[in-house]
Amino acid sequence: MSAVSEKIKNFKIELDERRILRLIGYKKKSYERTDSVKSLIAEEKKKLDDLLQPISIFTIIAYDETNNHPIFMNATKIALCICTIGPKLEEEVKELMKKNEMLRALILDALGSEAVEEVAIQSDEFIAEKAREMNLWPSKRFSPGYKRWDIKEQRFVFQILPSHEIGVSLLKESCMMIPRKSISFRINFYKVQKFSTRKQKN
Amino acid sequence: MDKEELFDKMEKAIIEGDKEEAESLAKEAVKENLDLNEVIEKGCVPGIQKVGDLWEKGEYFLPELITSAECMKAAMEVFKPELKKANIETRSYGKIVIGTVEGDIHDIGKNLVASMLSANGFEVIDLGADVKLEKFIEKSEAENADFICLSALLTTTMLGQKKAIEMLKEKNLFGRFKVLVGGAPVNQKWANDIGADGYAENAMIAVKAVKKLIEE
User: Fold this and answer.
1) Domains held by chain A: number
2) Mind listing the pLDDT tens digit for each residue in A130-153?
3) Beta-carbon neighbour count of residue B138 at 10 Å?
4) Domains of chain B and any CATH numbers
5) Under an 8 A CB cutoff, do B74 and A93 touch?
6) How many CB pairs under 8 A join A and B?
C-alpha cells in the first residue's frame, strides 16, 4: 500500500563545527585547543559535496488510513516522512576505517549524522508548512522508537511510503534503515492547538 | 639513535598522536635490529598508558585516544611481519573476540573499542558487524578466547546479547569466557540483568573493564 507521496530534494546543508566537536567526544571547555582536529573536520567537510545525496519522501494520510496506533489518535491528518543522505558517506567511512584512519572515519560519520539531522529538520519544516496551509496545527516530529511509538512501527512507515524511490530499505527484524544515515518520522496535524503542537508561523 | 632514545621518542609520538613518526621509528627499530618486543614494552606501551592517564584526568578526549591508537597500530603493522618472520610471539594481555550482534550493521563504535583494546596490548579478533551469535561462540572456542565483546546499537538487537549468554549457558560454556556488552541502548543494569561480566559505555572504559576483569 503506497499513498501519494512527494519528494524533497533541495536541501542547503550547513554543519556547525562545534556540534561535530561535541559529537566526536569533546567537552565544551576543550573546544579551544582542538586546532589539529578542526583542520581534519575542514578536510572531511570538503568531501561532502561528493558524498551527500540528501533526499526525503513524505506523504500525508488521513487517520483512517493509519494502522490505528494510539499515537495517531485525534489527528486529522498524519504526515510520514523518510529522509536520507544516501549510502556514499557510509562507504567512505568504511574505507577510512580500513586504512586505519579511525579519527577521520569518526569525524565523517559525525558529519553524516549532522547532515541527515539537517535533512530531517528542513523536511520537518516543509511538512509543517503544509499543515499550516491546510489550517491545521502540526505536532513536533517523532520517530519510531521514541516516546510511545515503538521502533517496530517503522514497518508501518515503510508500508505506506515507497522508500525504494529514495533508496532506503528496512531490515525487517531489527527495523534498522539502510543506509544507516536515514531518519523516519511522523507529524500529526490537528484541528486545534495541543501540547505537542508548535506555534503557528506569523 | 640509541635504543633508549628510540623508546622515548616512540612514547612521545604515541602521546602526541604523530602517526608518521611512530611508523618511522618502528622502521628504524627494525633496521637497527632492536628487540621489537622491548620497543613495544618500553616505548609503545608506556605511551598508550600515559594517553589513558591523560584521558582519566580529562585532558585527553576520544579523538586523542583514537589518534594514539592509530599510532600504535601503525607501529605494530611494521613490527608484526618481522616478529612473525623471526617466529617471536608478541605479548598479549588476553584474547578478545568482538563483533556487533546479528541484525545490527553498526560498526564504528565497535571498531573504536577493538582499536583501543588492540592498542592496549590485547589480541583482538574482530568478527565485524551483523555476526551470528553461534559464530561468536564457535570462534571463541576455536581461538580459546578470554573475552567475548558484544556490541548492539538498537533496542531490537540488544536482545542478541542476552541470547548469546543464554546460548553459552546451554552449551555449558558460561563462565569460560568473560562477556562484555556495549552500545547505545545498553547500560550496567542491562548487563547485570542478562548476566554479562561487564559493561562499557565507551572505548576507553572497555579497556579498563577488561583489565579489571583480568585482575579479578
Assistant:
1) 1
2) 999 999 999 999 999 988 899 999
3) 12
4) 3-85 (1.10.1240.10), 95-215 (3.40.50.280)
5) no
6) 67
